[in-house]
Write a structure and sequence with these properties.
The chain is built from 14 helices and 42 strands. By secondary structure, it is α+β, with helices and mostly antiparallel strands. It has a 4-stranded antiparallel beta sheet with strand order 2-5-1-6, sandwiched between helices. A 4-stranded antiparallel beta sheet has the order 9-8-7-42, with no helix packed on it.
Length: 789
């Protein structure tokens, strides 16, 4: 450090030599004086540091246990006037008490001994033998409580010892030859909860009885062991049941008469789908900004976002919505928390230390968490499946590789989930019952989004071609097998409804050097699942199905000549090329959730180029740019799309922009260190296809109402004024309903006052009417006849 500072000082001094004008020489001398002053300060600082280091004394104390090393340090601490902290004082409490009691008792005994000794010496001098016996009439009526009451009052309470003992049941029954190994395993499992001071393994007929007793140094260690080790699975046949020894007394005193359990209060989390009742049908989205310090929930509005909820440090990394939008998951060092309801109350939490990734089942019944910190060979904790409603752990799994998440893939209804290991496809049926399915050299698999059908592919093996298999569960019936040759790689792409499966096959035809790509299109709804093929000789950048249709889009070619092609799968068994746009700046395809519209985006390295396309007639509606955009997110209805620049990928220009599906920019929302935006998903529609078609048919009938609301929202009147008018109108409507109800309730009173005549209606009691004609003079005008001539 000193050498570096001296080198710095030499660099600060000006070079010698050279001729300068007088003003330049003056400036040079000032710089030299300033440099020397700084050099003296550095030297002074180095000298002070050297003196403080020379005064530092290091002592190494060596000695056996209980030889006085810690006592020496404590004495040094007292001599130099440093006080002990509260924890150290509490640790010394028992020792000090024992010393006080022992010294008091020793002092009392010594005083009694000295008195008796003096009396004995006097009697001995008189020639009599001293007697150490109590007098025959002595009555010892002074108890220790009376003698040392003030001291014993502060005496620490002694425990009977059994509150630190636990009983472990379902332990393997072993003989003497395996007992030592069993003890090592048990000690390894239970010693992590605290120091074990005693172990007892009951035996009978040369074997252990299947249960053991363990004693910890402190009761809280025993409680921790019961909490964490109860239900621990040692192997397939042995699952530990752990209880406190003191629990046996509690269970022995249970009354034989059954008592009805107390009714637990119902936890009302509110309407978990309240956002669906918004009168303006506005969707919600979550936003993380200020580098993750703040998280907000907003309602999307044409003019500006409407804040629903905002909290500081709501999550430690990122958030995740459940598939139907019911829950918001936040990440914490100790686990996952789920939030929901109108005020986003905490609904459930799952303890999984160091959790990094999660995945929901499509039915929102289960959640899967992953942590790289918890896994052990005997107790798999890397991946845990939880029950969302009860919060209980269903099962833990090891994780060999978390690079491809999610490791478990779910069927469309959440009834099955599967994972791929080497040469094995493990399929589980909820609640977590395992079915093995052995496939040699399995490479990849994927579930159908509409049926319990699983697709997987196996590469070539010598003379056996590669094959793609479609299997139905739980029958394991192979509904289609497709053999492929000269295959390099395959990718499986399902259409959202499961109507089509596209297998992207990269192959090297014989006699050629390049790679050719084929799209094998499986028609899942037709008999025997026919397959159509589309061949492309250019490299493929992106592929995406239309969510609710039969079209798909492909980006192919090399930059800067990237082409976007749109295909239509027709009912007659042909695949037609609809349109191709050439020279596109795009590397990603984002379809609208409702189909028909899509965005061709050039993210990150392509500077955020955007192209909005209507695939019904393949027209380019708009071309725009959001510089350095990193993400594109469609809202669930397909009306709006958001482009954003995340602080996680780019440190400047962090914001999110809201566009219409036609590419018209509505908002530019700039958030300090904006990180993430996620739309809240909507649950599936409950309407049938016939009802949806009827609504589309009568859409013009409802369009006037929607247009009126749109005009109102786009008017110049402020939002506060509109809300005020709506409130006044609602108050008037409520007042009118109350007045009409009161009017109807008073009808019988009006009839009594009017002699039974109902005068509420104008045409009531027509027969009792009397007609009377009244004539009266209005005006008189006199006109002379001569004037008429």
């Amino acid at each position: 450090m000193a050498a570096v500072l001296r080198a710095l000082r030499s660099c600060l001094l000006p070079a010698q030599g050279g001729h300068e004008p007088s003003s330049a020489k003056q400036r040079s001398r000032e710089r030299e004086r300033e440099a020397r002053r700084r050099s003296r300060e550095i030297d002074s600082m180095l000298a002070r540091e050297s003196r403080s280091v020379r005064r530092l004394v290091r002592i190494l104390l060596l000695g056996a246990g209980e030889s006085g090393k810690s006592t020496f340090l404590k004495q040094m601490k007292i001599i130099h006037g440093q006080e002990f902290d509260q924890k150290a004082l509490l640790d010394f409490r028992d020792t000090i008490f024992d010393n006080i009691v022992k010294n008091i008792c020793r002092g009392a005994l010594m005083r009694d001994w000295d008195t008796e000794k003096m009396e004995a010496e006097v009697e001995f001098e008189e020639g009599e033998e001293p007697s150490f016996s109590d007098p025959e009439d002595l009555v010892d009526d002074i108890s220790d409580q009376e003698l040392l009451e003030d001291i014993l009052r502060e005496r620490p309470q002694e425990a009977d010892g059994i509150d630190s003992v636990i009983v472990v049941d379902n332990v393997p029954q072993v003989g003497p030859e395996r007992l030592e190994k069993l003890k090592n395993v048990i000690h390894k499992i239970f010693s992590k909860f605290g120091k074990i001071t005693n172990e007892y393994y009951p035996e009978a007929d040369g074997k252990t009885k299947g249960y053991i007793f363990l004693e910890y140094a402190a009761p809280n260690h025993a409680v921790e062991a019961v909490k964490n080790a109860d239900g621990y699975k040692l192997d397939k046949q042995h699952t530990f049941r752990v209880n406190l020894f003191t629990d046996f007394d509690k269970y022995m005193t249970i009354s034989d008469e059954w008592e009805a359990p107390e009714k637990q209060p119902f936890k009302d989390f509110g309407n978990l789908r309240h956002w669906m009742e918004d009168p303006d049908c506005r969707d919600q989205y979550s936003v993380i900004f200020e580098a993750g310090e703040r998280t907000g929930i907003f309602c999307n509005d044409v003019k500006e976002p409407i804040l629903v909820e905002e909290r500081a440090r709501w999550t430690e990394t990122y958030v995740r919505w459940s598939p139907k939008g019911t829950y918001l998951a936040t990440f914490h060092q100790r686990g996952i928390a789920l939030w929901g309801g109108e005020k986003f109350k905490q609904i459930q939490r799952f303890s999984h230390q160091g959790v990094q990734l999660i995945d929901f089942s499509p039915c929102e019944r289960y959640v899967v968490t992953f942590s790289p910190l918890m896994d052990t060979k005997d107790d798999p904790q890397a991946i845990i499946i939880w029950d969302i409603l009860t919060g209980q752990k269903k099962r833990g799994f090891h994780c060999e590789n978390s690079a491809h998440w999610p490791i478990f893939k779910w069927s469309h209804d959440g009834k099955f989930f599967a994972r791929m290991t080497q040469d094995t496809l493990s399929i589980y049926e909820t609640p977590v019952r395992k079915k093995y399915f052995h496939v040699q050299n399995l490479k990849d698999f994927s579930w159908s989004p509409g049926d319990n059908i699983i697709a997987f592919w196996v590469p070539e093996d010598k003379d056996i071609p590669a094959r793609v298999t479609l299997m139905q569960l739980p029958s394991r019936h192979e509904i289609r097998v497709r053999n492929l040759f000269n295959v390099v790689d395959c990718k499986l792409h399902w259409q959202k409804n499961g109507d089509y499966l596209c297998v992207k096959v990269d192959r090297t035809p014989k006699g050629t050097q390049g790679v050719v790509t084929n799209f094998e299109i499986f028609r899942m709804r037709e008999k025997q699942v026919p397959v159509d093929v589309v061949e492309m000789k250019e490299s493929i950048i992106a592929f995406a199905w239309e969510p609710n249709g039969s079209k798909f889009a492909v980006l192919h070619g090399e930059s800067p000549r990237i082409n976007a092609s749109f295909y239509h799968v027709k009912n007659n068994g042909k695949i037609e090329l609809i349109k191709m746009f050439d020279k596109q700046q795009a590397n990603s395809i984002f379809w609208s959730p409702q189909g028909q519209f899509l965005v061709l985006a050039g993210l990150r390295s392509m500077n955020g180029a955007l192209a909005f396309v209507d695939t019904s007639d393949c027209t380019m509606m708009n071309i725009a740019e959001h510089y350095m955009a990193s993400d594109v997110e469609w809202d669930p209805t397909g009306r709006y799309v958001v482009t954003s620049v995340s602080w996680w990928s780019h440190k400047v220009d962090n914001a999110f922009w809201v566009w219409t599906f036609q590419g018209r920019l509505l908002q530019k929302n700039i958030k300090d260190r904006f990180c993430q935006l996620l739309w809240r998903p909507r649950p599936p529609l409950l309407l049938s296809q016939e009802q949806i078609k009827l609504i589309k048919k009568d859409l013009k009938k409802y369009s006037k109402i929607f247009e009126q609301k749109d005009r109102l929202s786009q008017s110049k009147a402020s939002k506060e004024l509109v809300d005020k008018r709506r409130t006044m109108m609602e108050e008037y409507r409520k007042y009118r309903e109350a007045a009409m109800q009161r009017y109807q309730e008073q009808r019988h009173l009006r009839l009594e006052l009017r002699g039974g005549v109902d005068t509420d209606e104008l045409d009531s009691n027509v027969d009792d009417w009397e007609e009377e004609t009244i004539e009266f003079f209005i005006n008189e005008e006199i006109i002379p006849l001569g004037d008429l001539a």
